[in-house]
Amino acid sequence: MPESLQQLLVVLAIATLTFALARPVALKFSSASDFSLRRNAWFVLTIVAFLSPSFWLFALVAVPLLVFAGHRDTNPVALYLLLMNVVPVIPIDIPVVGINHLLELDIYRLLAFCVLIPTAWRQRQSRPETQARGLDRVDFLLIAYGALQTLVFVPPDLPDHLILQDSLTNMMRRAVLFFIDSYLVYFVVSRSCSNRRLIVEAMAAFCLACALLAGDAVFEALRHWLLYTNIGMRWQGIPSFYTMRGGALRAMASSGGPLILGYLLAIAFGFWLYLQTHVESARLRIAGVLLFWLGLLAAYSRGPWLGALLIYFTFTALGPRGSSRVFRAAGITAIIAGALLISPIGERLTSVLPFMGGHVDQYNVDYRRRLAWRSWELIKEHPWLGDRLALVKLQDLRQGRGIIDLVNTYAEVALFYGLLGLSLFLSPMLLTLSRVYRVARGILHSDSDYASLGICLCVCAVGTLMMIAFSSLYLGYQKLFYVLTGLLAAYGHVARRPERR
């Protein structure tokens, strides 16, 4: 049996079990018809991806399916979040006569063209002009950041230090890509999630998607076999590499990388902290926590581990009876940590944690320190608008793989776009976060459930702001950054309409 068919059978078996076990929980937050529609779309896209020899045959099936599902689904944002990582992000050039490079297509952009743009259009057409929500400060800040990225050209890191020159075509391409990849995600999420139910349903759909990822990740870690490698080989002709740490395979499922998988699961765990309060069964509540944390352990990424713990303790501290709950949470965490340390995987965990004397992949920690120091030196030279040729000046950070790995979003943005760019980048999330926190704290006693929802979104945003210090803003990091900002904005607008809480 071909390896790709074996991988497909494993993925389908894990997904069938996950959907079956998750159905009772999912139906608490969505209708049976929407759940079936999203589940069936996930299965069709997965089967076609594993069997299709090229991306274009996959797209031939995916485009009409996504358009149909997006039109039928009562909450297209939930559909988008469930399918966001149905297959790995494999960029494929759109062939155009007379142009060397137009745009690349992948699953994110297929979802943007087939689900998000039609949703934005339908929403605009269905609402009277007097009820349509106009642009606010957050929108203008995002647009300003996109304009800065459009106007400032950062040459790619090419061999032989070749510096490409900018062009009007490149500027137009950057503007379109920022709209599709970033602003559109925020716009649709912030406008479509127009009441409490839609916000919670979107979060539940994302948790379901991550439950599928976690199941695949645990299998990959146990069997030392990545499940989605053959898709990239067939579509792009480039083999996937197994990422190891201390002799152990780091799982990635369809996320694109272990670090990305860890981040997605950390946010899903944060969402679950709120969602589980609506689940009566203690077994299901515990099962959700265990599944996300097993997936986190399989990803073997330190930053998401710390991010998930930050989310957990911050959520606990900001809720009712915060002090006593934090003390209890610390005790539970200490017991679980102690059990893990004396288990067979205890040595593997401590070996990658520097504060516990770990030394595995210490060069990654040292590299991040050097990156932060060297970046700050260059930022001080060009503090306001950055230095578009910063990569040329960071040759001492070139790694064995031949790249300069900017694994710090803050450093990356400040290097190329200065402190002005960093302010524009952070302001939308910080502004919406502060609004939601004030609202949630203000209604903590009058509407504890809605307050808990707001606190959940806030702590996931705080966790994100911490975790992007250890990664570039790409793939799942980028999408969730703007999804979270959109959910925060949606929560703030719903809070202004008490009758819609």
Describe the SSE topology:
Elements: H1 3-26, H2 32-51, H3 55-72, H4 76-83, E1 92-93, E2 104-105, H5 107-126, H6 137-151, H7 168-192, H8 196-223, H9 229-236, E3 244-245, E4 248-249, H10 258-275, H11 282-299, H12 302-318, H13 322-341, H14 346-350, H15 362-381, H16 409-442, H17 448-467, H18 476-495
Antiparallel strand pairs: 1-2, 3-4
Question: Describe it for me?
Answer:
- The chain is mainly alpha-helical.
- It has one domain (about 5-500).
- The chain has 18 helices and 4 strands.
- It has helices spanning about 5-25, 30-50, 55-70, 75-85, 105-125, 135-150, 170-190, 195-225, 230-235, 260-275, 280-300, 300-320, 320-340, 345-350, 360-380, 410-440, 450-465, 475-495, and strands spanning about 90-95, 105, 245, 250.
- The strands form 2 sheets. A two-stranded antiparallel ribbon has the order 1-2. Strands 3-4 form a two-stranded antiparallel sheet.
- A hairpin with a 2-residue loop joins β3 (about 245) and β4 (about 250).
- It is globular, with a radius of gyration of 22 Å.
- The mean pLDDT is about 90.
